[in-house]
Amino acid sequence: MSTLFSLIYLERDSDSDAMININGPELFLSEKLALEHLFQHVKTRITDACKEEFIENVFSFDVPLFDITGYEDEEEPVSAEQLEEIFDYIANNGKIEMVTDWYFELMNDETSEYVYSIKKHDIEINSVILVDQSDIPCSLDCISLFVNGAHILDQDSESDLDIDVKEMAETMAKNLNTTLKSIEISNKDLGSLIAESRGELYELNEMIKNDPESENELYEQYTDGYSNSDVIALLKLKNLI
User: Fold this and answer.
1) Which H/E stretch holds residue 184?
2) Residue 3 three-state SS
């Protein structure tokens, strides 16, 4: 039996669809890692949506604003670099949860719903799998982490995550005393699977037979816009989960 922590957060207008706006669940080895991951998002949102309110309240987090900025007046504008220093101070001094709670409480009102939840789970871990999708043109060299057949996290060429998914998977497998499986899935394998699920595999094979030089492009017509559910179906087909 192993202990993991799930993170879910929601940011939406009250009249919008909650299910569309839910982020997660994502799994972490500790509550601290879950909070650190969420804080990366919170920093961006504070910068974009409520920087002035944050600076006005920064003393309530015991942040030495004047030491960081060199100012003697809190009305002085805080630069992007100084704001990042403030965030670093918060992260390095055990104040992430305090600031995260403040952000969600500030943004949650009668017109908006802003909430997050981190829960502890004692579960049996059967598989930790890293899936390299770099062969698929639209994947942006994506690498995904799956645990017990559930999608946990993606990292691609456009990700701004501070977390290294490979390192996280290795640590998770080691701490959970299980084997990490690393596989590569091809554009061909995933394209064939999606075509078969649509009842179009025969037609696809015939097109490839008639135009073998366009094989990869024909498979790409099926993999373009693929989902994690498609990847999971392929993992099941390969008896990996």
Assistant:
1) strand 180-184
2) strand
Examine the domain organization and report whether 26 and 137 are in the same domain: no
Copy the structure tokens of residue 117. Answer: 């939840």
Q: What is the pLDDT of residues 83-102, one digit of tens each?
A: 999 999 999 999 999 999 99
Using the structure block, give the residue that is written with the tokens 């809190």: 74
CA distance 127 to 99: 35
Q: pLDDT per residue over 155-194, tens digit each? A: 888 876 666 888 888 888 887 778 899 999 999 999 999 9
Other beta carbons within 10 angstroms of residue 25's beta carbon come to: 17
Are residue 113 and residue 15 in the same domain, yes or no? Answer: yes
How far is it, in rounded angstroms, from Cα 187 to Cα 152? 22
Q: 70 — alpha (psi -120 to 50), left (phi > 0) or beta? A: left
Residue showing tokens 């009842």: 199
